[in-house]
Every structure is written in C-alpha cells, then in structure tokens.
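As the work plan foresaw, our protein records have gained a structure token line. A representative record is set out beneath this paragraph:
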Amino acid sequence: MVTFDDLRKMLTEEKDKVIIGARRTLKMIKNGKVEKVFLAKNVPEDIKNDILYYSKIGNFEVEILNLSLIHIWRCRRAI
C-alpha cells in the first residue's frame, strides 16, 4: 500500500514520470504511455470505471490508494 510519504517520494524522485489529473491520465492511457495508475479512494465513479476498463484492455496496473483527492493534491504541493 502506498502511503502519503511514499507518494511524496515518488513525486520528487520521478517528477517527469508522474501525471496528476484525470484528463491528462486518461489521455496518456489512450496513447499507451502508462505503466501504473494510482487512484484516490474518493475518485469519481465514472473516472474510476473508465480507468479500470482501460486497464483490462491495456497493459498497466491500477492501485487504489487509501488517500483522498485532497491528500494527493497536498502531497503534490508539498514538493
């Protein structure tokens, strides 16, 4: 399970590889440029369903975090 500190570490060490935001993430998924997607625990159901659908036909993992959207945005701003 990814914690707040793990996420912050990923964001600082792999800045060029991390995408935050549903629209940008879905665009990258459709272009086949995603290896793994982390979803907030309170992501809107339609976005979650879209990403889970694409994960079944694509070649990437999906992990649902025990963090809310606000925690992820705070983590992003903390770097």
Notes: The first strand starts at residue 36 and ends at 39. The two ends are 21 Å apart (CA to CA). Residues 45-57 form the longest helix (13 residues).
